[in-house]
């Protein structure tokens, strides 16, 4: 079928409620991963633009139209954005939490003492830097933007240079709904030139980051120089454990495919390690191969596309290198591992299943971020748990079994922040999202996402008219 021409709006940086050309006037080309053609460009911010955006954010916090707003007032802006936004659920959810925050802003604490009156005050943390990835660009941005605005912070969003255009459109929406200038600023550009100055800026009070572990380490190191708080979500190498008591084998097969191949495997929580009970391994893999034949690989703009391209040439080569290295180390490429024959252009990789894997192999240890599933078998629960936890990451885990008690045992045993029973990858705005170990710390989404952007103050008042009498009064000496 004919694919419509893609039209990319030409945007500048969104700073202080308006579009501004970067100080150095630099631009970055946008390359379509489906065609390998340049289809537009984005502005490239530098340290000078970061300074301007930070000052705009600070002014927003100092003005009554943003810095002194109630949660209910901020909720109106969030709902107005939701009415125009494709990822409305996050803004609507945090609009509700912003309203509820008004009643919790000043929370009395009973000390059972007549001479003291105390309360806990929840306030916006200040100017926050939000650095987001390319795999779900607008969605990942709203996971941070919506709670930051709900809390009353002024935010500076720095999306990945590989996928920025939808985040720039969010700037246009904010301008249209009249969000006060400086409350949200959007800086596109390269990490070293725009992201690094944002992290190290002395007037940015917090950094929230989703992305690679290597970049997360750099951010944490830079923020530590200013003792600046960070929250990090750094990906994973998540397991899906399938037991032989599963009633519907095809149901387990489909969730296994979805857990690893959705979004071309470019998912931080992808369950890319299949840990399969030995007694059903042969039949299960046969069913996987049959299902894979029905996965439509095409330009994402085609109807019913189920697997599109890898985001960039660099990531494409990285995925192919992982597959080649697995083969060199002695693993078997059961299927896939190459460019689909019918796709002559674009960064496409066939859905790939790798067997005969041992735990010392790179394919078992490292995050691929592509449509690659590696497989190991087990006999006992103890062996399955050991294999599941045999990773430096700790984002998510899945188990497929009809035995509820077994699932509960695995809930306690899995060393991850997210656990799925008889499914993989469902994500809900109301629930916390984040991991352990090298998957990072802190949580997006739910009430926990809002807490990321709040400063907690203890306020204690001495109410007695009597002297404290710790020291002897000079008048009585």
From TrEMBL:
Domain of life: Eukaryota
Protein name listed in UniProt: Betaine aldehyde dehydrogenase, chloroplastic-like isoform X2
């Amino acid at each position: 079928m004919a694919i419509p021409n893609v039209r990319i709006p030409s945007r500048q940086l969104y700073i202080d409620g308006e579009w501004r050309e970067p100080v150095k006037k630099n631009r970055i080309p946008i390359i379509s991963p489906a065609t390998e053609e340049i289809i537009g460009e984005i502005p490239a911010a530098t340290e000078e633009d970061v300074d301007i955006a930070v000052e705009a954010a600070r002014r927003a916090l100092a003005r009554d139209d943003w810095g002194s707003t109630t949660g209910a007032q901020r909720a109106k802006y969030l709902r107005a954005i939701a009415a125009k936004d494709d990822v409305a659920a996050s803004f609507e959810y945090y609009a509700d939490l912003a309203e509820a925050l008004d009643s919790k802003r000043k929370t009395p604490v009973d000390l059972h003492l007549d001479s003291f009156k105390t309360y806990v005050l929840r306030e916006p943390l200040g100017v926050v830097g939000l650095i987001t990835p390319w795999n779900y660009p607008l969605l990942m941005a709203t996971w941070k933007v919506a709670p930051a605005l709900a809390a009353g912070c002024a935010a500076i969003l720095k999306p990945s240079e590989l996928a920025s255009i939808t985040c720039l459109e969010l700037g246009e929406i904010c301008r249209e709904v009249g969000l006060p200038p400086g409350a949200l600023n959007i800086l596109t550009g390269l990490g070293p030139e725009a992201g690094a100055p944002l992290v190290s800026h002395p007037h940015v009070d917090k950094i929230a980051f989703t992305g690679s572990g290597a970049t997360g380490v750099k951010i944490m190191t830079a923020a530590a120089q200013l003792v600046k708080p960070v929250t990090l979500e750094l990906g994973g190498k998540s397991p899906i454990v399938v037991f032989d008591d599963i009633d519907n084998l095809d149901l387990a097969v489909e969730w296994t495919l979805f857990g690893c191949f959705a979004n071309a495997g470019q998912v931080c929580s992808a369950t890319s390690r299949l840990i399969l009970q030995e007694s059903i391994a042969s039949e299960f893999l046969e069913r996987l191969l049959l299902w894979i034949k029905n996965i439509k690989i095409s330009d994402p703009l085609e109807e019913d596309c189920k697997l599109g391209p890898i985001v960039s040439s660099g990531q494409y080569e990285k995925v192919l290198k992982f597959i080649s290295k697995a083969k060199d180390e002695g693993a078997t490429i059961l299927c896939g591992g190459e460019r689909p024959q019918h796709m002559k252009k674009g960064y496409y990789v066939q859905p790939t299943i790798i067997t005969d894997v041992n735990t010392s192999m790179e394919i078992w240890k490292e995050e691929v971020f592509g449509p690659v599933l590696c497989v190991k078998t087990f006999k006992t629960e103890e062996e399955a748990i050991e294999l599941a936890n045999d990773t430096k990451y700790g984002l998510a885990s899945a188990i497929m079994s009809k035995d509820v008690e077994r699932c509960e045992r695995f809930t306690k045993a899995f060393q991850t922040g997210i656990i799925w029973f008889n499914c993989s990858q469902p994500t809900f705005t109301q629930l916390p999202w984040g991991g352990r170990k090298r998957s990072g710390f802190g949580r997006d989404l739910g009430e926990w996402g809002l807490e990321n952007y709040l400063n907690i103050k203890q306020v204690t008042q001495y109410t007695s008219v009597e002297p404290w009498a710790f020291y002897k009064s000079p008048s009585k000496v």
